[in-house]
């Protein structure tokens, strides 16, 4: 059993900051940032991720009143009660038997949300899965290793349980202080550890999915990787033998938006997906954790 | 399909504050608190809910290396990366394909975690579901309506998917500013709204579960309600016609520990449950949300 993607949208901030912004106060250059990360612009939100989520939810045209599940994936939520998923349900006037959950598995949170939804829903039933991240609240703007990487963003999908191909792969590894965030502090990252984990373990994960289904990299019609860093994405594409044109990306525009990166990519490209295409999604990050899905569109 | 409870434990703080503590700085009295809430003592933790969770996990004697799922339910987590469930997995040296999720549905979070686990696990597979709450970080000690109600706590259960009775009921209602917590602020509560919701809707929820299975209140062998307030618990027992002796409680000792209240009750009473007993669990609170389960032990 799998999931059909009915509709996808993104929250619009409409104010993109380019890399020259950081030249004013960091010992860095636009060229260096572009070359090292693949990021050209990012957005910083003026409102909290709860208001971003409410604005996003209003964009959906399909009726949201009959959902069985609403999941908000985020590691940056400041609203603790009611949960953001509950707020969204309240706003949508949703079905009273809808389960509302806020979940956190950092950058793998949205993919994990899809996996939970697929196991929870009965056939023909629907869920709204979204991610809303205001990472700028937790960025040390004086740390040139992290300030240039992240952006705020929110995206979501309305899905329905169907019986198409759905294969998942979850994996966790020792975190070894690779990527940390405690309250009232800033994100700290050991870039080398995260890079090594992503390149090695995400390729292993996607290979497991392909092998189980007798597929090869070249059979993948659409690849949506967590938008962490261009080097990681390029390495994964090369290792897996996936056609680079089939990798949907928006890193250059939004930077790393954690759990929001995958739904943002889906929302921007929803019209490109064709019936029966083989699609791979993979979220990865702090934990260290990854969640990958092979599905038929 | 349902869940078998293999093992349950609680985190020990070992320092109980009685109601006279509040007499020193609030216009209240021990007698008033006891009479209005049923709470005699509570615990306030010196460490964060992440360290509480790690300490709790170490108490389990069954091997935790082969779990498919670890869920931490909490609305008070300050650790954002890695998630607390990931930290726990790291500590346990767990199975690398274990999905680790931190979830928030306030006081209904632990029951929601069980429901997610039951849908995610294959038969014979295991999950570790726990709740860890340090509510004292978010209590306004000058507000006599809320300061006296909450306590810190953590409890968890190791469960295995079986094929016994498992019926669930989820419901959500407009929150109407009844129970709120945003970052850097304190819990605010409209006690009347929460009371009305709990008494009306939790009894409706449990009645739906009983009716679907042709059971009556007197058939319930063990009742574990979220430990919010003695008046709510007594009202629910009376409305449902459940034998008061079958309601397992610890409100008087711990106060309201949000998501942790149900696993704390289970951990303290695990030896009392007998094979084939009909057990009802119900978590309810901010959202407004509730999650109820009817299961056979």
UniProtKB/TrEMBL annotation, chains A, B:
Its EC number is 2.3.1.180. Pfam families: ACP_syn_III, ACP_syn_III_C. Keywords: Acyltransferase, Fatty acid biosynthesis, Fatty acid metabolism, Lipid biosynthesis, Lipid metabolism, Multifunctional enzyme, Transferase. InterPro entries: ACP_syn_III_C (IPR013747), ACP_syn_III_N (IPR013751), Thiolase-like (IPR016039). One of its GO terms (molecular function) is beta-ketoacyl-acyl-carrier-protein synthase III activity. Residues 210-297 form the Beta-ketoacyl-[acyl-carrier-protein] synthase III C-terminal domain. Residues 101-163 form the Beta-ketoacyl-[acyl-carrier-protein] synthase III N-terminal domain. One of its GO terms (biological process) is fatty acid biosynthetic process. It is an enzyme of class 2 (transferase). Pathway: Lipid metabolism. Belongs to the thiolase-like superfamily. FabH family. This is Beta-ketoacyl-acyl-carrier-protein synthase III. The lineage of its organism: Bacteria, Bacillati, Bacillota, Tissierellia, Tissierellales. The gene is fabHA.
